[in-house]
Design a protein that fits this description.
The chain has 381 residues and is α/β, with parallel strands linked by helices. It has 14 helices and twelve strands. α2 (35-44) runs antiparallel to α11, α3 packs parallel to α11 (258-273) and α12 runs parallel beside α14 (364-377). The radius of gyration is 22 Å and the shape is globular.
Amino acid sequence: MSNAVWPEVYKKLGVAPVINAQSWVTVLGGSIMRPEVLRAMDDAARVFVDMTELNRAAGEVVARACGAEQGLVTSGCSAAQVLMAAACMTGQSEDNVEKLPDTDGMKDEIVLFQGQRNRYDKAFITSGAKLVVYGSEGQGTVQELEMAINGNTACVAFVIGPFMSRGIGLEETIRVAHERGVPVIVDAAAEVPPRANLARFHQMGADMVAFSGGKGIGGPQGTGLLAGKAKYVEAAFMNSLNLHSAIAGIGRPMKVSKENIVGLVTAIEMFTDSDEATEWKGWQSKAEYVARRLRDIAGLYVEIEDDPSERQGPQPVLYFSDDFDGPSIVDVKQQLESGDPRIFVGGGDRAEINIVMVNVQDGEEVIIADRLREILAGEGQ
């Protein structure tokens, strides 16, 4: 790793930068913030402010961006999940807010489709709620959802993400829940871009929606945004760092610094004002370059895919035929991650390697292609 691209602050700690072709994942630091966001955070650090006033003002920016009644900046999307669940249980009762995680006397069941279970849904029960799961891994029915909802249901949760089953779909989920007087909360952590998704789920009727602030929006990694109907978001605010209240909500440990709040607000404004088509074109160009460099390798099939339900932007996806005479997918990833620079790609446990371009910096697509040719075709070895 050259000194030119190894910031001194990391060099002192012995932590080398990596090439992130895996997406806006937390494990690799989310996203790269724009210089304007960093300057705004630096300005915010130079003075004191009333944090409640700042939270309220920032919430208005979030609400406008999402086309919602009210908004709130949170310490990541997982914190927003905690607060959404808490809000649905406590409402705007200070007594209930103070009681959590003791849910005695409250509706405390959150209904979730089995096909949307994931390691992050623990956030839904952090505030004391219980998960009620319906359906199977691959499918759920309206009837199963109807049976899962009962007099103790606080809300129905819906999770949207790449390769995540949609079950009966969000619109039908909202219809069934609302007919029974039950709110619907949505975890859409990585669902922007497209920018239209900021408002889309509210327009469909969701009561609260949570996004990550440190992924596609390009804000500080430790931020999230929650937006929705005022009565629910106000309840979420009461459960958060409500410093002008005599009670401490379940969200007290999830405070957001003034620097991060200002950074996220700045990032949101820049994100909504920037040109999505230009951004997409840049990802497409890098994807096509990598695909061109790899398509002549025997037994390897490379397709550029951009289905928004599965892919975050256009990306080369590498599929291996039975007659591919080379290392396994596991070995390829290990070699990429142990090289210099270390390169992280996507694919999870699927029989593929996908190279996500949203965080690939200019010129890194050349390094990625060179390294993959070395590993897959034995070039330069």
